């Protein structure tokens, strides 16, 4: 019997600087990215098991009508201060040293998934954006309509993306300038005022029926001479947080995912619960902890308010020193660093 052809290689953007010594690039097996060194394909029998089983928190979740508060207004768009503004889910408006970023912009309802929380202003009013940071290609992080809206209001915008995301971006707008990076690589499209690095995450990719793990996933670090800001993207807890701390720690601001973690048999290889997110933040020697990936879309079994309640409980024990839970649209100024 013919044996399967396990063709393995490592790839990176050869034009970019790789900051981890001796790092060969991201491992690919038969055209599919590994999750670090190991292949990870989500078991969709677990999805079926989830759909056919009863949520033990069903009644509690049904009665929980929590949505994040929204602070309306667009003054932050025209401000010149260093700041972070949460826009719901994993979308942030970030300004550092006069350079403005949008992370994983998703502003609308998605197929079979209604957005529960509002926005501080109309998406068209998000202007003066220099870069879109895209952590991975799942549709609740890379949304065609949202990106087209950003481009329409910001003709100067560029995208910083993972390896092999270019086909998706060209399908959204063939004229959008973009640069792809692998893990531990530094983008070179960015002005000297800031540095942007693409870093690991423990996750996976699928956007269509036949493209499992064909596009990379990851996290971002934005660095100025006085501040480091980490955007974790979607990730399970893993050893990559130790690698990031060894290269950059301690980190001043950590934007950490804390939702979509139940049931654990389905979610634990993709997302972190609040305790795991705090553990990762402490591994990073983080300063300010700003949670994300909760309250905007109903993706999992935990009640909507549970992530916030758990974070506040953890903070009350002293295990989470820098917790800041902003409203959507609230400007978190970073001048104190």
Automatic annotation (TrEMBL):
This is Metallo-beta-lactamase domain-containing protein. It comes from the Bacteria. Residues 101-294 form the Metallo-beta-lactamase domain. Pfam families: Lactamase_B_2 (PF12706). InterPro entries: Metallo-B-lactamas (IPR001279), RibonucZ/Hydroxyglut_hydro (IPR036866). GO terms for cellular component: cytoplasm. It comes from Pontibacter actiniarum.
């Amino acid at each position: 019997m013919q044996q399967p052809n396990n063709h393995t290689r490592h790839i990176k953007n050869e034009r970019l600087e790789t900051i981890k010594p001796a790092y060969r690039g991201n491992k690919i097996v038969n055209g599919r990215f590994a999750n670090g060194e190991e292949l990870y394909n989500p078991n969709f029998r677990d999805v079926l098991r989830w759909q056919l089983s009863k949520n033990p928190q069903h009644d509690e979740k049904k009665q929980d009508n929590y949505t994040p508060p929204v602070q309306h207004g667009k003054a932050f768009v025209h401000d010149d201060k260093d700041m972070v503004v949460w826009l719901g889910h994993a979308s942030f408006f970030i300004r550092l040293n006069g350079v403005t970023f949008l992370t994983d912009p998703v502003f609308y309802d998605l197929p079979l998934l209604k957005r529960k929380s509002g926005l501080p202003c109309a998406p068209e009013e998000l202007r003066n954006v220099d870069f879109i940071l895209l952590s991975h290609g799942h549709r609740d992080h890379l949304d065609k309509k949202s990106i087209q809206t950003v481009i329409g209001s910001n003709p100067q915008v560029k995208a910083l993306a993972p390896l092999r995301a270019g086909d998706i971006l060209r399908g959204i707008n063939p004229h959008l300038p973009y640069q792809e990076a692998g893990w531990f690589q530094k983008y070179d499209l960015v002005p000297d005022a800031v540095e942007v690095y693409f870093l690991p995450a423990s996750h996976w990719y699928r956007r269509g029926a036949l493209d499992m793990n064909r596009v990379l996933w990851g996290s971002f670090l934005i660095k100025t001479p006085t501040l480091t800001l980490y955007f974790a993207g979607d990730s399970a807890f893993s050893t990559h947080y130790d690698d990031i701390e060894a290269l950059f720690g301690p980190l001043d601001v950590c934007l950490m995912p804390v939702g979509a973690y139940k049931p654990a048999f389905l979610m634990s290889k993709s997302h972190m619960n609040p305790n795991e997110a705090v553990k990762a933040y402490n591994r990073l020697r983080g300063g300010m902890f700003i949670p994300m990936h909760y309250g905007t879309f109903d993706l999992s079994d935990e009640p909507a308010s549970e992530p916030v309640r758990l974070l506040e409980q953890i903070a009350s024990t002293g295990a989470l020193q820098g917790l800041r839970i902003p409203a959507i649209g609230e400007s978190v100024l970073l001048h104190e660093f």
